[in-house]
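=== Structure Prediction Worksheet ===
Name of assembly: unnamed complex
Input type: mixed (protein and possibly other molecules)
Chain count: four
Listed entries:
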Amino acid sequence: MKKKRPSLKDIADALNISTTTVSFVLNGKGEEKKISKELIAKVEAHLKEINYKPNLVARSLRTGSTRVLVFMVEDISNSHFSKVGRIIEDISYKNDYRVLFCSTENDVKRTQDLIHLFHERQVDGFIIVPPPGIEKEISYLLENEVPVVLFDRKIPDLEADYVIINNFEGAKQSTQHLIDSGYKNIAFITIDLDQIQMHDREAGYIAALEESGFSPNILKIPYDTSNIPSSREKIKKFIEKNKDIDAIFFATNYLSQSGLKCIHQIDAKLINKLGIISFDDSNFFEMYSPTVSAFAQPVDEMANQLMKIMLSKLKNKEQGVPSKVVLDGTLVTRESSLKK
Amino acid sequence: MKKKRPSLKDIADALNISTTTVSFVLNGKGEEKKISKELIAKVEAHLKEINYKPNLVARSLRTGSTRVLVFMVEDISNSHFSKVGRIIEDISYKNDYRVLFCSTENDVKRTQDLIHLFHERQVDGFIIVPPPGIEKEISYLLENEVPVVLFDRKIPDLEADYVIINNFEGAKQSTQHLIDSGYKNIAFITIDLDQIQMHDREAGYIAALEESGFSPNILKIPYDTSNIPSSREKIKKFIEKNKDIDAIFFATNYLSQSGLKCIHQIDAKLINKLGIISFDDSNFFEMYSPTVSAFAQPVDEMANQLMKIMLSKLKNKEQGVPSKVVLDGTLVTRESSLKK
DNA sequence: TTTGATTTTTTAAACGTATAAAATACAATA
DNA sequence: TATTGTATTTTATACGTTTAAAAAATCAAA
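=== Predicted Assembly ===
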């Protein structure tokens, strides 16, 4: 005795009216469609009584819209991304959209799968932090006129909307701050990925050093979520070998966290001698001792801009030139970057 | 000039055959349905050529199945849950299901929204870590014969399938281990939530102490993700006030992490005097210094059991008595729980 | 060249909703 | 009374699939 979920038809039959009428009332179009007050009341009462839940799959098929957006980032548990995600979720809710979150882990194959999974299920829009090599899938979405907004990094030569920050300036400013604090031997620890935002950060670091006549000292770690211990080994060796380093600029917040652990392991007192600054802020940094300085991305503004673009694309399917938004971050100076 | 995505009909028209034939080939039923080899080849070639992607919304409406499962946990960024999630995702993929992850944040309202969101979109099954107060929605799903498997904690008086661990035994064993290591004044720091697994852990702690004639010393922190600093204040005060404590048993891995930071802040050397053990393991624990002992849940087995139950429910919609699986965890002893 | 058997392909309906267009009811007007 | 207008409700179709059942095509035997 399998209980079938009631459909509009069942309700219509029970009340001896047409499905159209029920549908109008259900969608709050009763008045507009001039359904009589009594009938509206009757239908509403019945809907409530049986606790009717519409079949959104059927609705989506009919309307062509799922009212679902996808937010795909490198790692949703990274507080930088999850903060943006939370704001996006709020704005979406207010506009009657739901948001699905997922992590690409910077893996192309996985990202492709996710994009297809959601596109075939007709989600209405994508907000994506694109991993390297994903150009083709993004183009595919674009060709099919699916709203896409890139975030955190753009894809060169691709005419897509994006919201990013000025990575070069941010990195230059951060490095300059360390120089201003009196550090003279500033290392840069980054990820060995061919992504434009990483190149920009590196370039900003080098530019600041050159202006002051210092020379760069860079360590590149392979990006590999599954092998954190090995990255930590690399960082450790690097620090131990370069005894003259008096400050380190980490290119991402998770690198900083790994780095701090390494520093602690090498020598619990070492942290008090090194100047530290991180690209991207993290909750962790104001809890650590010493508190850690960071170049923070404008989380609120990014989320707002992303959703502004997304909502406008959802509204007018025909689109003009892509919006290319480049925001400035702010340097948050805490204890770790002050000369001791 | 909006480009419509091609449908089965379009393909059928282009090839001058019926949609049925196309559908059979698309679903690999060509041979079975005795479509001629040449026609199969022709259709397949065309499908590939236009890079056809079926509309899964339409398919779901027709078949009544989305082949999507939902994995709802307290916090997907907690490594305990994300490890289980990863295995579940693997098994699901092999069985042609996709998995959506989401965090309830232990919030009833949010969980209700999520359950409705997904149920109305006809997902095929739910694996849920139920927050307190969610009984009604779970019952609702059960009544509608939606496959649900609870995990991490059960709901008393609810006839649902679940996979949990023996929290009482785990806590007792962990406490006993501290006693065996020579600690005499063991505190228990837990979350002030009316959840059965928390009660069991507390009871296990108390039972072990009583057997050895020690008396319990318990701190309960309110569960509140948004207010981590305040919990840390509470822990800090508790430790500072109870100078005689020589060991602490934390009821969850995130409490342990907060706790470790507090201990470090109070006195960098304090960690070397205290015995520490955590319920639930974490990646963090083997990186910390000292490495942290934990009572680890059998992540692999839990995931396997969860999926075994889920897949069987998905197969035979009619179900007999619920599967109630209670697993044993294992004590992972590391440096932090050895007497110094 | 008809019959039957077999192979191959198509017709038609269904899933549950939304909505344009048509239909009905009812009152007011001429 | 017939006509027009307005208010209310329904009919019919579409969205893109899947699939039972019917139909057509092919071939072998009689």
